[in-house]
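User: Here's a structure from my thesis project, written as structure tokens. My advisor, Dr. K., wants to see whether a designed sequence matches the one we expressed. Can you design one independently, without my sequence as a hint?
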């Protein structure tokens, strides 16, 4: 078993095929504190899952939104002084502000230095650009 974190975050219930996408997204290869990455762990809920423990890392709401786009329904636990201070399932927010890019090359957000703004439709996992109206699947969307 891996050592308990003194301070940091645990991302749990990661689909096994998304684990390394998240490692990339969080740039954990450049991270200098202790990181534990585990995959294909047994899980009652999911059969197999991935898990990441990151020492001294506390996510911003923007980072949490990015995680939710890549991987809905992962569990985030925040630990301070060996105690769990927060535990939640990450769900997609109703809007994504400056988290993802519009796929429409002529959209104003791709041509002016400005924030993107998307409304999220959870049931179909699509995002609609508030400026040009283009809808995109969250499974192919590019993070900003
Ligand atoms: Zn757009």
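Assistant: Designed independently from the structure alone:
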């Amino acid at each position: 078993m891996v050592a308990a974190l003194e301070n940091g975050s645990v991302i749990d219930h990661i689909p096994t095929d998304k684990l390394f996408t998240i490692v990339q997204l969080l740039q954990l290869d450049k991270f200098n504190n202790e990181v534990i990455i585990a995959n294909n762990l047994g899980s009652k809920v999911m059969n197999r899952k991935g898990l990441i423990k990151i020492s001294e890392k506390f996510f911003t709401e923007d980072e949490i939104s990015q995680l939710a786009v890549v991987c809905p329904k992962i569990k985030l636990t925040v630990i301070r002084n060996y105690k769990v201070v927060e535990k939640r399932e990450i769900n997609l927010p109703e809007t994504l502000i400056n988290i993802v890019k519009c796929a429409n090359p002529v959209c104003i957000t791709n041509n002016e230095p400005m924030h993107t703004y998307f409304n999220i439709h959870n049931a179909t996992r699509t995002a609609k650009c508030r400026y040009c109206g283009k809808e995109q699947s969250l499974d192919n969307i590019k993070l900003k």
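When you compare it with your expressed construct, this may help: Residues 12 and 51 are 5 Å apart (CA to CA).
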